[in-house]
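Hello,

Our lab assistant flagged a job as stuck in the queue for most of the afternoon. It eventually completed. Since we weren't sure the result was trustworthy after the delay, we are filing this so someone can double-check. Below is the sequence as submitted and the structure that was eventually returned. Let us know if re-running is recommended.
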Amino acid sequence: MLIRVRSKDGNFRLELQPTDDGSVLATKIIDTTIDADPKSVTMSNQPRGGELPLSLLNGRTVASLGLKHGDLLFIAYKPALSAPTSPVPTGAATLSGAAGVSSSSVPVVAGPVSKRPWELAQEDAVDTYWRQKDGKIPRSRDTQFCKHGPNGMCDYCMPLEPHDAKYHADHSIKHLSFHSYLRKVAPPKLGAQAGTSANMPPLEPLDYKVKVPCPSASHKPWPEGICTKCQPSAITLQSQPFRMVDHLEFASPAIIDRFLGGWRASGEQRFGWMVGRYEKYDEVPMGVKAVVEAVHEPPQEGDLDGLSLELPWEDEERIEKVARMCSKGGADDGMKIVGMIWTDLTTNTEDRSKSVCKRHADSYFLSSLETLFAAKVQNSHPAASRSSSTGVFSSRMVAAVLSGTPEGGIDVSAYMASEQACAMVEADMIEPSVDPGIVRVKEEAEGRYIPDVFYRFRNEYGLEVKQSAKPCFPVEYLLVTLTHGFPTVSTPAFLSTDFPIENRPGVENQDMPTMITELSKLKAPELRPEHRTDVSKVTKYLSDWHLVAFLGSTGVLDQADMLTFARVLTHPDVSDPNVLDPILKNEGWGTLMAIVRESGPAPARPSRPAPSADASDFPDIPPEAFDIPADGGGGGGGGSGEKTCPHCTFANPAGSADCEVCGLPLEG
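-- returned structure --
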């Protein structure tokens, strides 16, 4: 088989056998170069992007690399610092058929097989699920056009591809799901190549930065030099055809209501990280949805019309670790931070029960500042993918905003920043403007290269026009919209939302006394499996994300105890009297209950009425003695027939109204 090679030294043809080792191909490629540093030689199946070092060829056959007869490889390298000059090497015939002059070949040392970035990617469980499915859209037999029997199939009833344009248009699906998009750009291979991971991945993350150093190595690195090989191409903004997440689902309406409680109590805007997981979404072909089980609020400073927070936040690593411990239904991957949510609410001055609608088609849906913030967060949380040459592609972080509706209510809107938005933020090309619906393109400065940026729109005549995006363009070109909602049958992983929420100073206090008092009221220290009602109440109270996250910060539980608590309290079965057995046998639970016994409020003793004295019980005492008051006749403390002054304690005669010594009333 012939493999074509193209580099700055010319075009070459390499004769290989499909069973040859990849090191043979690497050696022949190096032989075609002039003064090349062997460690810097890279290859790709396209002129720009997807470059891989030759060391990855070791231990693989040419056939397993996915190479076929006539394939073209693009080679780039850096010149060696000190290497003897040599003519065009042999070992490869040029396209004209002339043989080159012989030169010493650089051997490639065989070593252990190193995995490529996309082979090391740890994809989410939902990605693994969809890779095992064909994603075809089933169709029933058409009674009008199908002429075959019930076991036959024709063009009118055969399954559709998941990226079928007509199906999406008929069902008002604006964007392809990520895996439908993969099926479109890289259809599954048939035969012997089906399922092989050796082929080049179809996706390449966008990069609008200047390549440093230049692949051609013909000039000094940027900013001292630039050429067409290292500078980014012109950018044309367009609607993204796919979305990484198709739907945002809140496991329970109580999650939204509890989050809104911070704004209702203080009037200040609030921000939170959505904790949950990704699942398949059946309403869209090969769809993915983000299921939110809780909202964790980081430290922040709210205001009437905005808020400020610090990124990365202080407790981020610990919260992500706690989220991974919480698994629903025994899942191994647990939960994770799936997005962010914030409020943008203003009360209507004319009707305090309604909110002002600020986001609509005539203003904006997501401001430029919020869009760039979402893009920055997405860049810091990339999604692992085996379909990308770098092992990661885009992100699945969802941005949700709670704002007023035209009817005066409150609703959720879900968005994501497009891949172009993330690449432009990464390249420091754009910035927010005073107008929330406009994004501004930055000016070129030292160390910052800004390529030409264009966007398309239809003018007043219905014609598609291409216009320069400098100095600014509408923010809608950087957004991807998502649907949102609640499940038909709510089965949240956490049963309670009563525990105080973190980082709400002055509104809610999250501390040990609050938890100890509640556990003491529920009689948690005396909990036994046979006390079915008490077990159910304690389970419901403990199954709270904010309580589980708080327990991890108290220092009472170690890592193993925390893992047990998180697993048991995530989606527990309250009807099972033994549901808390793993926790009750835990050493950390014993320590916590000891604290509850020592610090909890003392149980109130029941008051018993004093026994009444009856003359029949004491025959030796005269009956008139039972009519004498307990205080000895009203003054207390003196002999019979005397009144003790409550002011000076002088014993006055029984018939006196005022004290004979101080003159004050004896009854006062």
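-- support follow-up --
The delay was a queue issue, not a problem with the job. The result is valid. The mean pLDDT is 83. Residues 253-266 form the longest helix (14 residues).
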